[in-house]
Amino acid sequence: MGLITGSASVTRCIATSRPDSLDFDEYSFEEILPGSTVRERVGFLPFEPGAQYQIGQHRWAFRVRIDTLKPDTTAVQEYLKELIRAEKEATGTPYVHPRKKRSLKQLAEEELLLKATPRSRVIECCLDDHTVWIGTTSKTHIGTVMGQLYQMGVVSEFSTPWMNEGKDGPPSEIIDVSEPWQSVLGCRFLRLLLEDSEVAIEPESGAVRLATRDARITLAGAVMTDLLRFVERGAEILGAKMATADATFRFDALNYRLGSLRVETEGHEHWEEILDERLEKIAAVHDLLDQKFAALRPRMEK
Q: What is the pLDDT of residues 175-205, one digit of tens each?
């Protein structure tokens, strides 16, 4: 999944401050060398080798690569067993002290790290003037991307209708809002969309996550009958598979994020043309949701 291929999971952020020119090369990605003690490396990459980062006026396309070096858990456990057996044979005792076991486990991890191959994750992004499109909905990876941008002087934060208002949402006896960018307003918005004809919850091959006072519930398939029954009893809708005339996507209501967004594009030869069209359609879905939210906002406090 990314911004230019496959279905897109996208987080929209706003750059509250940024310089006019950005030097991505200064913070470019460097690989973890074999035998290195470094456990993680993060840096920028262009969309293609040799491509320019800046693709328009105040517009940059970039990828963030995250390499992590971790020994395989199963391999560590198996090697630890061998080390413990060797320790027992060397000392002639049937028992190994827990402190010694921890030391042997650390030794196993360090030796296996020398043979381990880094695991890579690449996140496609675009900074379009003051809008940051991040091709993931993972909180950890979003934070990594925002941290990399901050090194270049780009200060960014999540962009949701309630954060733009600068107001806290109504309290909820069902949902525990744990992050500063989350709000029960997203759930109230999704509930009101049940009445909408342009943005609809997928009725036949649907997927819905609900919260009640007692449990978290997942519905799949033909969801509407059960969904309406739970909503009438006061359940909050946490997320749902949605459909418009031009796209289908999963909407995370608490975080106001889009996942598995499917958009149709023309056949283009150059990646910049693909990115332009896909971002245009991704932005159109966000704009439609923003318009619906603004129209329904007065009813969300009830």
A: 888 888 899 999 999 999 999 989 999 988 9
Dist CA 302 CA 182 (whole Å): 19
- What is the CA 233 to chain-centroid distance, rounded? 31
- The torsion angle over the Cα atoms of residues 193, 199, 204 and 209, rounded to 10 degrees, is -50
How confident is the model over 264-299, as pLDDT tens digits?
A: 777 778 899 999 999 999 999 999 999 999 999 988
58 φ/ψ sector (left φ>0, alpha ψ -120 to 50, else beta): left
Q: Which two three-digit tokens encode residue 217?
A: 């519930």
Neighbours of 124 (CB within 10 A): 23
Element containing residue 287 per DSSP (H, E): helix 271-296
Residue type at position 91: T
Rounded to 10 deg, the angle between the 73-91 and 98-113 helix axes is: 130
Give yes or no for a contact between 8 and 261, defined as CB atoms under 8 angstroms apart: yes
State residue 284 phi and psi, 5-degree precision. Answer: -65, -40
d(CA 54, CA 298): 41
**Residue pair 279/3 in contact by the 8 Å Cβ criterion:** yes
